[in-house]
Amino acid sequence: MFVFELYIYYKWENRELMEKLQGIKPVGRGVFHWEEVQEVQGFALPEERCTLLITDDSRLLSVGRAGQEFSAVIYGGDLKDAEDYIDGIDQFWAGYPDRVCEKQFAKLIGNMYAHFRAHFDHNVLKAIMDSSQDMMWVKDLKGLHLGVNRKFAEVVGKTKEECCGATQNDILDITEESAFGGGESSESESGVIRHGEMMSTEELVQIGSDMKQLTTYKAPIYDPFGKIVGTTGIGHDVTELNNMGLELGILLENLPLPIILCDENFNIIRINDRFRQVTQMGAMEVANMRYLQWKKDNLIPVTEPVENKVRNFVKQEFRLIARGQEFYYVLIEQAIHDYFGNLSGYYCVYVDITMQRQYEQTILQAANTDGLTGLYNRRYFYDFVGKNAGQPMTMLYIDLDNFKQVNDEYGHARGDDVLKKSAEYICEVFPEGTVARLGGDEFAVLLLGEIDQRQLKGKCDVLDKRIRTICRKGKFFVSASIGISSTDGSQTDVDAFIHEGDVRMYEVKKQHHKEVK
Q1: For the residues of 92-105, what is the DSSP string, one character each?
Q2: How many CB atoms lie within 10 A of CB 214?
Q3: Architecture per CATH, 132-237
Q4: Phi, psi at residue 237, to the nearest 5°?
Q5: Rounded Cα–Cα distance for residues 116 and 126 (Å)
Q6: Coil/strand/helix, residue 194
Q7: CB crowding 55-78: b at 16 or more within 10 Å, else e
Q8: Fold annotation for 4-126
Q9: Which CATH superfamily is domain 372-516 in?
Q10: What Cα–Cα distance (Å) separates residue 101 from each residue in 56, 94, 107, 115, 401?
Q11: Which 3 state secondary structure label does DSSP give 220?
C-alpha cells in the first residue's frame, strides 16, 4: 500500500552528474521518475505529486513550489540570479564536486522519504484511532494531550482541537486533581513512566453529569535515544457492561429456576437464590462448592445424557434428595461461546419436573395396580412375567374357595374385606414375590430364581391357614386353592406358563371340594 513516488525534473549542464544521480537507488519502497526539462517556457511542476527540481537555470526557479510539503529544489547556478527564490531552495550545489553533490542528493531524498513516510504513518494512525470505539489519546510528560481520537472527543463533548494542549482536568472541567478519578489517572500514568511498561487499570471518571468506569491501557512513548517523552492510552468504557452484569444478576435472582454460571472449567461464577433455596446451602457451603463434585455427590441420574451439538448443550434428568424430599430436575448445561467461537463458560439451568413425575407415577400406579387391594393388576403382572421370561421362576396361582358365598350371604362390602385381608396375608407370607390380583378372587405371586419346593409348599400351607381365619362362620369358610407352576428358564411363553398355574390351581380346588364332601 505504501509507495514513495518521487518525480525528478532536471535541467543541468553537467550531464555526467545527472547520469550518476540516476544510478542512485531509491530508499525503501521508493520509485524515481526522471524527466529532463527541454523547454523552460511553459514548464510547470505537476500538482499532487512529490517533486524534486534539479536545475542550474535560474529561470526554472519561478516554477518551484516553495514551501510545499513534498517538493524540493536543488540549484546549481549563480546565486545572484536566485536572490528572489532563495527561501524556496533546499540545496545549493554551485561549485561542489560531483561526489559531494551525490551525497547531498542521497541525503535530500532520504529526508523526503522519511517525511512522506511519517505523514503516511500519521494518517494511518489517525484512521485507526478514529475508527476505534474506544477512547484513545497521546500525552506529553506534563499531561498535556497531544492528540485524541474521534471517540474521545465525542465522549467528553469537545472537539479534538479543544482537547489538544489541555490536561485531563481541563478537558473534563475538574478543579481538583483527586476528584472522580483524576488522581487515579495521574497515578497510573506516573506508574507507566516510572516502570517504563504498559499498565492496565480500572478508573472511575466523571464526564459531565455521568460517571464512567473505564478499563485503561497505558504505555510509554520513547524517543530515538530510549528516553520516555510521553504516554499513550486506550480507555475502554465498561460502564454499560457493568450495568449489563447488574441487570443479569437481577434477572438470575428473579428467575424461578435454579441456575449456576460457570467458567469454561466449570468453576462457579454465580449461583442464584433459587438454587440456594432448593438445596438449603449456606454461605460457606456455596463459597466452597465445586460444581462437578457437588453434581456427582448429590444428583442421581435418571436418564442418559443427550447432547445437542447444533445448539451446544447437554440435557439429562436427575433425582435430587433435598430437605428430606425427592425432586426431579432436567439439567441443561448450555455452553457459552464468545464472538470468535471460543468456549468461555456454561450456564446450568435446573428445570423442576417433580410435579410432572409425580403425576406420571400416579397415572402409572393407577394403570398398573388394583384399586381395591393396592396390588399389581393383571396387565402389569403379565408384562412383568414377560420381562423375566427366560430365567428360572415359580408362579403361584391363588383362588379363594367359597368367596361367592361370602358375597351372597354377607354382601359385597364383606367380600371386599376378605379380598383386602387375603392380599395382606399373601404379601406377608411372600414378601420377596411380586403379588398381583388377576381379577375377582384370583391372585398370583411370581418368585424369581431357584425355589426350594418343600419350603414353598410349607409357605403355601401357612397362607391357606391364615386365609381360613378371615371368614369362618356356620357351615363354610374361605380357603385358598394354590396352583404352582415352575420353569428353569426354558419356558418363554407367558400365556402357557400362567395357564399351567391356572390348571394346577383347579386341580387343587377339586381336591378341596372332595375334602369338604
Answers
A1: E-TT--HHHHHHHH
A2: 24
A3: 2-Layer Sandwich (3.30)
A4: -75, 110
A5: 15
A6: helix
A7: bbebebbebbbeeeebbbbbbbbe
A8: Rossmann fold (3.40.50)
A9: Reverse transcriptase/Diguanylate cyclase domain (3.30.70.270)
A10: 13, 9, 10, 21, 136
A11: strand
CB atoms within 10 A of CB 300: 11
pTM of the model: 0.49
Identify each DSSP E strand in 58-107 by its residue range.
71-75, 91-92
Residue 6 to residues 1, 111, 233, Cα–Cα distance (Å): 16, 12, 36
Domain ranges of the chain: 4-126, 132-237, 256-357, 372-516
pLDDT of the chain, 517 residues: tens digit per residue: 789 999 999 999 999 999 999 999 998 889 999 999 999 888 888 888 999 999 999 999 888 665 578 899 999 999 899 888 898 899 999 999 999 999 999 999 999 999 999 999 999 999 999 999 899 999 999 999 999 999 999 988 899 999 999 998 888 877 654 444 445 567 778 889 999 999 888 777 777 667 777 888 999 999 999 999 999 999 888 666 555 566 677 778 888 899 999 999 999 988 998 998 888 888 788 888 999 999 999 999 999 999 999 999 999 999 999 888 899 999 999 999 877 788 989 999 999 999 999 998 888 888 899 999 999 999 999 999 999 999 999 999 999 998 988 888 888 899 999 999 999 999 999 999 999 999 999 999 999 999 999 999 999 999 999 999 987 665 567 899 999 999 998 888 999 999 999 999 999 888 876 555 4
Cell representation of residue 292: 462437578
Cell numbers standing for residue 275: 438454587
Tell me, letter by letter, the H, E, C secondary structure of 325-357.
EEEEEEEEEEEEECCCCCEEEEEEEEEECHHHH
Alpha-carbon torsion 130, 133, 139, 143, what sign? positive
Contact 27, 4 (CB under 8 A): yes
Helices (H), 132-195: 150-156, 160-163, 168-172, 182-195
Locate cell 394403570: which residue?
367
**CATH code of domain 256-357:** 3.30.450.20
Domains 4-126 and 132-237 share a fold: no
Task: Quote the cell numbers at residue 405.
Answer: 358365598
